[in-house]
TrEMBL record:
It is found in: Mitochondrion outer membrane. Pathway: Carbohydrate degradation; glycolysis; D-glyceraldehyde 3-phosphate and glycerone phosphate from D-glucose: step 1/4; Carbohydrate metabolism; hexose metabolism. This is Phosphotransferase. Residues 244-496 form the Hexokinase C-terminal domain. It is an enzyme of class 2 (transferase). The lineage of its organism: Eukaryota, Viridiplantae, Streptophyta, Embryophyta, Tracheophyta.
Length: 509
């Protein structure tokens, strides 16, 4: 009997040891898997590191590329395009002016009443979606549609179509254009889903002008600009210290006010103001000092424009969310902590170019104890159900690393502009160990775009980096001021600021 009892006891002990060994083995394997996932995060953090020293190298590279782009055509990744806008709104403009904003599948027409007092104007806006058939049809049909909408707005107001007074129109046309004067430019190519072949190579404002005449509208296209220039115009109208404009949304770009004698590639260029707005097209900026990861390389290779728009692909809303998706995919491949690899994680831009970034922002800014927004987004949009809390926290950290890098690089880009025009404080007199601010001018940068205005953490990281790069004594003189609807209202304001010119002061033949 004793032997039986002993045998049972031994059997139980062996079974218990086996179970314990199995449990321990599972824990060890789980720890190893978790360690691999954490290793992916650590590698990402190291690859995305943006120390102040590194950011200052990006600042210097931006300023150098700006100089090169102004010196010769094709001399830089930055196109540094002349806009021929040599007169920004001052706030003293009076009268009724119109704006037309065409830059995507929607377009808007505006009437702005200016009373001659800065920051005070009345505005009437009408927005319409462009029927898809007009985006790929004939140019005549598209511009007829646009002119009809403009005509309707004129009829709603007090202006008579038959008035002998020519109405001034600012036209924001956010497609690649070779500008030839402040009011003319040749369409290079369509983007954003447009494909009207008979329009390519034509002078854009001229086609619109002919259509307006055919409709009987007594209206003159005074300026042809892109949305960044419109943002600068609106910013300068409200605040005379505004010297640059930056858009950080789905895409990104910047422009600034430059001295004409610094635009070496057009020697002999003269303007009455001594300056001109330069459209940088900074999305194409690149520097070896920028912290590029394997995810960036893969994204670039699988995008429609590989080896192009390198800066944009690291800082704009079109791409940030997809970088996060790629990191989560890598974590899923390294371990089953995230469950099986779902098809939604495997397809580049599976959720669309820009739709992933708002989800990224929502996950990043989820402050609920259980990260319920993160769980819902992962389940509903990325098809990753029942993710444990510690894994959800890991996803939030990935969003943080990607957003922080983007915001800090954007800040470096802004400081690069300030350095180029001598507004970064580097020329201030030093008193002892600190820089005197006696010669530091107040500097305003107009800024627009959903990534900056709606993504709180991104905005905070950008401001933090701006202060780190410039130093507190200089940063206090630099103000980032949000504008609203620079692409539309800014165009109308530029029509006002150029309305007294019967002939363009500056033109490229």
């Amino acid at each position: 009997m004793a032997k039986v009892v002993l045998g049972v006891a031994v059997g139980v002990a062996v079974a218990a040891c086996a179970v314990a060994a199995l449990v321990v083995g599972r824990r060890v394997r789980t720890r190893r898997k978790w360690k691999r996932v954490v290793g992916v995060l650590k590698e990402l953090e190291e690859s995305c590191e943006t120390t102040v020293g590194r950011l200052r190298q990006v600042v210097d590279a931006m300023a150098v590329e700006m100089h090169a782009g102004l010196a010769s055509e094709g001399g830089s990744k930055l196109k540094m395009l002349l806009t021929f806008v040599d007169n920004l709104p001052s706030g003293s403009e009076k009268g009724t002016f119109y704006g037309l904003d065409l830059g995507g599948t929607n377009f808007r027409v505006l009437r702005v009443e200016l009373g001659g007092q800065r920051s005070s104007f009345d505005r009437d806006v009408a927005q319409q979606a462009i029927p898809p058939r007009l985006m790929t049809g004939r140019s005549e049909d598209l511009f007829d549609f646009i002119a009809s909408s403009l005509q309707h707005l004129v009829e709603k107001g007090n202006d008579s179509e038959q008035s002998p007074i020519i109405k001034e129109l600012g036209f924001t046309f956010s497609f690649p254009v070779k500008q030839t004067s402040v009011s003319s430019g040749i369409l290079i190519k369509w983007t954003k889903g447009f494909a009207i072949t008979d329009m390519v190579g034509k002078e854009v404002a001229g086609v619109l002008q002919q259509t307006l005449a055919r409709k009987g509208l007594n209206m003159q296209v005074a300026v042809l600009v892109n949305n960044t220039v419109g943002t600068l115009a609106l910013g300068h109208y409200h605040d005379a210290d505004t010297v640059a404009a930056v858009i950080i949304g789905t895409g990104t770009n910047a422009c600034y006010w430059e001295r004409t004698d610094a635009i070496i590639k057009c020697q002999g260029l003269l303007t009455t103001s001594g300056g001109m707005v330069v459209n940088m097209e900074w999305g194409n900026f690149w520097s070896s000092h920028m912290p590029r990861t394997s995810y960036d390389i893969e994204l670039d290779a699988e995008s429609p424009n590989p080896n192009d728009q390198g800066f944009e692909k690291m800082i704009s809303g079109m791409y940030l969310g997809d970088i996060v998706r790629r990191v989560i995919l890598r974590m899923s491949q390294e371990s089953d902590v995230f469950g099986p690899v779902f098809s939604s994680l495997s397809v580049p831009f599976a959720l669309g170019y820009a739709s992933m970034t708002p989800l990224m922002a929502a996950m990043h800014e989820d402050d609920s104890p259980e990260l319920t927004k993160v769980a819902r987004i992962l389940k509903d949009d990325l098809k990753i159900p029942d993710l444990p809390l510690k894994a959800r926290k890991l996803v939030v950290k990935v969003c943080d690393v990607v957003a922080r890098r983007a915001a800090r690089l954007a800040a470096a880009g802004i400081v690069g502009i300030l350095k180029k025009i001598g507004r970064d404080g580097s020329g201030c007199i030093r008193v002892g160990r600190t820089r005197s601010d006696t010669k530091m001018r107040r500097t305003v940068v107009a800024i627009e775009g959903s990534l900056y205005t709606q993504y709180t953490m991104f905005r905070e990281y950008l401001h933090e980096a701006l202060h780190e790069i410039l130093g507190e004594d200089i940063a206090q003189h630099v103000i980032l001021k949000v504008t609203e609807d620079g692409s539309g209202t800014g165009a109308a304001l530029l029509a006002a600021s150029h309305s007294s010119k019967s002939v363009d002061n500056v033109q490229l033949l």
